[in-house]
Amino acid sequence: METPTVPINFVPATSGETFKVGTITIRIMEDGSRTEPPPHWHEMHDETFLVTQGTLRFHALNGQTVDAKQGDYVTVPTRSPHTFSNPYDEEAKFFNTYTPAFYINYFKLLAKLGEEGKPMNPEANRRAMAYFATIGVADDEMKVDKKQFYGDGDGDGEGEKKVGGA
């Protein structure tokens, strides 16, 4: 068998491709926010989250939630309905991976569909998901507490939480 020649990918701490998706900045450290995506599941890739600051709340079916704090690691297997939010006052940051890495292009598409500095349009987000084998799940099926997930909903920014990518 011939030895593969796939190179390693080194991205120094101050480099990497960056772009805006709504109100969050994404830095791609390897091809392979306020984000709060609508509930969904992935048909073709796994996803992992390493919380590096604050607490992220992961939402699963039947209203199940898991609060992942700094240092906690969450894996989301293929076909596992989920979403996440930050219902806390402290900003949350995380390191996120996708296997296989083609899903990075989903975020690049979101950057083109959205307006920098503004929350992502949920319908545009759902359309983008469809291109990357990600299937939406209705809020009522997830039994998501909308106030907890989406903030107070009055548009004044009070009660809204921050979630940021690594």
UniProtKB/TrEMBL annotation:
One Pfam family assigned to this protein is Cupin_2
Task: Tell me the domain of life.
Answer: Eukaryota
- Where does the Cupin type-2 domain lie? 35-97
The segments labelled Disordered in the record are 147-166
Listed name of the protein: Cupin type-2 domain-containing protein
List the lineage, top down. Eukaryota, Fungi, Dikarya, Ascomycota, Pezizomycotina
